[in-house]
Amino acid sequence: MITILTNMLSMCIPFSVALLLASIGEMFNQRAGVFNLGCEGIMAMGAFIGMLIPFSVGGGGPVPQVYNVLGFLAAAAVGAFLGLFFGVVTVTFRAPQGIAGIGLQMFGVGTAGTLFRHFVGGTQSIPGIPDIDIPLLSKIPFLGDVFFSHNGAAYLAYLFIPVAWYILFKTPWGLKVRAVGTNPRAADSMGINVSRTRYESLMLGGALAGLAGAYLSIAQAKMFSDTLISGRGFIAVALVYFGHWHPLQIMGGALLFTFAQTFQTQIQSMGISFPYELAVMLPYVLVIVVLSFTSRNQTTAPTSLGKPFNREMRT
Amino acid sequence: MKKLLTIMLALLIATSLFASGSKESASADSGDGKIKIALIIENTIDDKGWCQAMHDGITQAMEQLPGKIEYNYSEKMAVVDAGSMARQYVAEGYDLIIAHGAQYKNTILEMAEEYPDVSFAFGTSSEIGPENVFTYMPESEETGYINGIIAGTLTKANIVGLVGPVDSGDAARYNRGYVLGVQSVNPDCKILVAHTGSFSDYVKSSEVATSQLSNGADMMTGSSQQAIGALRATAESPTAMWVGQDLAQLTTPEGQAKCIAASSYDYAAVIVSLVDKLENGIKGGECIPMNFNNGGFIFEFNPALEAEWVTPELKAKVEDQIAAFQASAGVLADWASVDYSTL
């Protein structure tokens, strides 16, 4: 039993990273008042670009790790660019954010798939980045497997959580982000450039979504296909609500969701008489249930979420 | 004006991207007397799984029947888009429209009623359709059984894993055949079975495989195109090996290193049979089974791993079983009786 529990917990950290990065990025978007449903599309583009660089160099064979790092950086850059693009549409042109997000999702997934077919071809894999056993710590019974035997990107992603918290709650820029998401008119009257802050948040959010996609293609699945993201971008959006726009709570949500995923896999593999269809639904049902019970606690929600800001208009 | 220019620029970029993508479509030379076949698939022709198997089968049939088949295909067709695509093919005079997946059943049956002079086909299904609809059903419990014999024989941990998509169609048959195969040679072997709930979620497939590997499985298999994700996860294990449901898996780097053997559907035989029927005026109303008995399956060991992993005894056992399947169809008639909760 202990072994099974250790196995389940040890998978939670590496399998939760993509959701975690994407939802932290979405948190920055929403904290600035912009609702970006295009997260899925940005992740798809990040996954493709991230995989393309090591694949182009090694043709699917081993490559120096620097190319995987370049893959991550390129994915972040593409994600930031798509965030900027989304900013043009929703901040400058003030298009409805929900519809624009759906458009970006379709654009990202479609473009990634098309470019993949053009430049790579069929489903391809890469060696990706290996797991790293942290000396001494990885030898600690139970804790070593759960916390200290994962790939480097997973460690960095989790180290970014306190950084995200610090940026959001302890820096002047974080204060601006929260201000433009809560009361942009007041922020504007205080001399904060609302559009610029929203653009910056969207670019940061896009970069993190791009990294999330690249994590899937370089560090987790170590391959790319058109359907690699498979709805994880939307789960990331849900996790932001689940975690009440707070980095630590979002991390908890990502871990809980991933634990539910590994738990349902265990239920199936243990041969317990339980319909697999219900087991597969378990993590999603969990999100809905938790959202239902916590939806009243919306005090942290950005009150101007989804509302375009127009200095010339009173509403 | 600025807004209009930006939108036009974005549309131009998007159009140019997709215009280059459309070059991927294949179109054979047209000519009189040819059977025009169109294929509609939900994934791509190089997914190393379900869709590629049918595409490869049609192109092989074209080689076997030179000059007789004109072929075109449409990839990434969601069920809601398949109808309009099929109508387009009907308008272009195609004789046979194959919608490769049971999810297209309702679309095809509607189209068949609307266009009685055109032949349609979909699978997997064992139903007998209308007079202008063929169905096909791979009896893949046979290939699963062969792979199960290999896995059950080679496992050292006495634990094998199976990553399924959904419990239906040919995947359900393959998976249960695999269980029967393992049990036939190793009744005490623990068989871990889990489904992802999707045919194409490669990440979830890899997560399920990782979970089973961490629980001690050292022989793995998986069905449908998502199995590539599970194979990729198996490649990360220093000890675990793989048996595949598609020969295309042998062409991947991880398949070369980990896949001891693989089987595949030989759709070429189905296509040749369909062309023959169409030429003889039969437009449908039949289900074409696929099994070793009628040449519907191909099985191969991985040449790179055969010497290290396949003992003469194991090879003889596999060959004997294939010979038994070839001699008679329906050997594993009780495949549906497998209950995963009793494993």
Please tell me about this protein's structure.
The complex is a heterodimer of chains A (315) and B (343). Chain A is mainly alpha-helical and 315 residues long. Helix content of chain A is 70%, strand content 3%. Chain A contains twelve helices and four strands, in the order H-H-H-H-E-E-H-E-H-H-H-H-E-H-H-H. Chain A has helices at 2-31, 39-58, 65-92, 97-119, 143-147, 152-170, 172-182, 184-189, 194-220, 232-242, 247-269, 276-294; strands spanning 124-125, 131-133, 149-151, 223-224. Chain B is of the alpha/beta class and 343 residues long. Chain B has two domains: 25-139 and 267-290, 3-Layer(aba) Sandwich (Rossmann fold), CATH 3.40.50; 141-265 and 298-342, Response regulator (Rossmann fold). In chain B, helix 5 packs parallel to helix 6, helix 5 packs antiparallel against helix 12 (312-327) and helix 7 (202-214) crosses helix 8. Chain B is globular. Classes of the chains: A mainly alpha (315), B alpha/beta (343). Chains A and B meet through helix 1, helix 4, helix 11 and helix 12 of A and helix 1, strand 7, helix 7 and helix 8 of B.
